[in-house]
Amino acid sequence: MSADREPLGLFPLHTVLVPGASIGLRVFERRYLDLIRDCGREGRGFGVCLIMEGQETGAPATAAAFGTEALIEDFGTGDDGLLLLRVRGARRFHAGRVRVRDNGLQVAEVEWCAPDPDDELRPEHSLLATLLEGLLEKAGGEHHLAPHARRDEAAWVGWRLAELLPLAPAQRQWLLQLDDPHRRLDHLLTLLH
């Protein structure tokens, strides 16, 4: 992790956003509307962290220390007038000190985790590539259309499985916290057994 810390607004959720994954959000609380407005104005993302204690609405929740930067890809308004966002997971981060603004928004001092290395899948993880291939065939979607070479990348295979497998949020959070893509794949193998 880098020694430089920078402030990042947090959007705690009962889900884990992993790098490369896309999720939809409905935004209605003033603190998050302010956050989205600021992100749009500054051309930056916000942090999504798993809620460890508390709720998504109301009083600020206790969030996990590791999270993922969410970049806004699309937005609109739902039939109910609420702001709808489509965000994509980008960089992982570790949150240090967290301050709560007057409007209830949590802002953390974050250190960005090192990017995943461009390592190839190891032979002991070939079963995971086969499993991912089957999931992508059934699920279709954007990742099914990704270049076939991506299916040989250790980090990409690990993140797609973390996204697509029916894992508990705590299991996804554990995978998010691992820096080594091969350890991530080892852990996925243990979860499958």
TrEMBL record:
Q: Where is the Lon N-terminal domain?
A: 6-193
- One of its Pfam families is LON_substr_bdg
UniProt cross-references to PANTHER family, sorted A to Z:
ATP-DEPENDENT PROTEASE LA (LON) DOMAIN PROTEIN
Stated name of the protein? LON peptidase substrate-binding domain-containing protein
